Amino acid sequence: MEAAAAPWWIWPLVLFAVTFGLGIVAVLAGVGGGVLFVPIVGGFFPFHLDFVRGAGLLLALSGALAAGPGLLRGGLASLRLAMPLALVGSITSIGGALLGLALPVATVQTALGVTILAIAALMWGAGKSEHPEVASPDALGTALRMHGVFHDPASGKDIEWKVHRTPAAFVAFGGIGVLAGMFGLGAGWANVPVFNLMMGVPLKLSVGTSGFLLSVVDTSAAWIYINRGAVLPMLVAPSIIGVMLGARIGVRLLRVAPAAMVRRLVIILLLVAGARALLKGLGVWN
Amino acid sequence: MQGPDERLVYARWLDWGTRIGLGVLAAAFFAYAFALVEPLVPLQELATVWSLPLERYLAITGAPTGWGWLASIRKGESLCLLGIALLALVTVMCYLRNGISALGSGERLQAGIALVQVVVLLVAASGVLTGGN
Q1: Do A227 and B2 make contact, defined as CB atoms within 8 angstroms?
Q2: Any idea where the domains of chain B sit in the sequence?
Q3: Which of A147, A173, B53, B100 lies 20 to 30 Å from B1, alpha-carbon distance?
Q4: Which residues of B touch A94 (CB under 8 A)?
Q5: Which of B2, B11, B113 sits opposite A73 (nearest CB)?
Q6: Phi, psi (deg, nearest 5) at residue A158
Q7: What residue in A sits closest to B115 (Cα-Cα)?
Q8: What is the pLDDT of residues A112-128, one digit of tens each?
Q9: Chain A contact set for B41 (CB, 8 A)
Q10: Which contiguous run of DSSP H or E holds residue A158?
């Protein structure tokens, strides 16, 4: 459909329908909506990438804010673990947002394509550890009191946790913040492996704390897009409403949906959208 | 800072802040999309400018940057931005509440981290980094 020829209201409606579907798939696959939203909407909708990235950040932020109270009340997110790392991530996400808005769009589009393809590879190959072993916690993590007891509601067990490789994690979250700000991606796909595989945090606590951390990192980058005028309500509002309604359906389908198949579907979506972004950035497929 | 009470207080502030922000955004968008309020950029023209790079879009539409939208708060886009700004202020309020609470209970490290984070978020929100008004 020619963007200019279609009535204006078609696109918000299509956007609502697509983001509703993304909300369902994102919950079933355990990823944030932003990582799917930016490459798909940026690649296949008429909106400029500047506005899509702003919307992607706000989408990820809204999801994180909505999930936050439940995660905190359920003891599935640790403030003490998240706060120092979120501080670093939020500072670098501001830099990423400023950089993303300063670079030529073809450069950002190409880098986005490479990043999305790398995320697909990470999702395909990355392992996970339910309860990682941390033989000896490092000094920085100890000083920041990054330890505690996590109650796993599924098993009913209390799991003592502590962290190691904290300095490396600070560097990693600094890099993740840049990517989140530059591309408007929620960064749960990167946060969870860093918490779980690098720092040795139990998997469920990693997922929950990642959700909470996103609400901080995405807030600072979102303000850069808001202040630069890169937020189109006609793009943002239907997307947020669509994803949130879709996520509610996704939660209901969690028990019956084949998780492995949904995850493969998301990887395929990421591969297609990443390739589209890369080829668009390189001027091969406009 | 990490105790159950503080976590629950943070959760309560987060919950209410998010509900208010999303509620304002949804109501404002309804009024904007169904032309109950006047838009800044006529809706029929929107589809001709939303594919433009940001700088060109701003030059053609005269859309505000920074906090300039507050001056046109009766317009549909600005009402939506009010809801978006509320969502983007929720974390600031929660951190401020927690930082002050941690300071009161003598947890200086946690209070320091929380209050530095508030400063970072306020600097981002102020528009000084982006030249917004």
Answers
A1: no
A2: 4-130
A3: A173
A4: 120, 124, 129
A5: B11
A6: -95, 125
A7: A87
A8: 999 999 999 988 887 77
A9: none
A10: strand A157-162
Give the pair of three-digit tokens for residue A279: 């080829």
Contact A117, A41 (CB under 8 A): no
ipTM over 0.85: yes
Residue A151, H or E segment = strand A147-152
CB contact at 8 A, A285 and A276: yes
Per CB-CB distance under 8 Å, the chain A contacts of B90 are: 65, 215, 219
- Indicate the length of chain B as a whole number: 133
Residue A111 banded pLDDT, cuts 50, 70, 90: very high
Nearest alpha carbon to residue A235 among A46, A105, A71: A46
Task: Give the lowest-confidence range in A65-79, A130-144, A170-184, A249-263.
Answer: A249-263
For the record, the structure tokens of A250 come out as 């996704």
Partner B, chain A 122-141, Cβ-Cβ below 8 Å: none
Residue type (1 letter), A221: A
Could you report the per-residue pLDDT of B29-67, keeping only the tens digit for each? 999 999 999 999 999 999 999 999 999 999 999 999 999
CB atoms A75 and B58 under 8 Å: no
Closest CA of chain B from A49, distance in Å: 8
Rounded to an integer, the average pLDDT of A74-78 is 88
Q: Are A276 and A39 in contact (CB under 8 A)?
A: yes
**In a 3-state reduction of DSSP, which class is residue B124?**
helix
pLDDT at B1: 44
**B65 to chain A nearest CA, in Å?**
5
Structure tokens at A107: 């450069």
- Please say whether the beta carbons of B111 and A207 come within 8 A: no
Among residues A130, A188, A195, which one has the least CA distance to residue A159? A130
Structure tokens at A143: 């000083």
Mind listing the pLDDT tens digit for each residue in A268-281?
988 999 999 999 99
Asked whether the beta carbons of A179 and A187 are under 8 A apart, the reply is yes
Q: What is the pLDDT of residue A3?
A: 55
Residue count (chain A): 286
Would you call A66 and B85 a contact, using CB atoms and an 8 Å cutoff? no
Q: Is A145 on the interface with B (CB under 8 A)?
A: yes
Q: How confident is the model at residue B3 (pLDDT cuts 50, 70, 90)?
A: low
Nearest chain A CA: its distance from B47 CA (Å): 5
What tokens appear for A202 in the block? 């139990």
Locate A166 and state its tokens: 């904290």
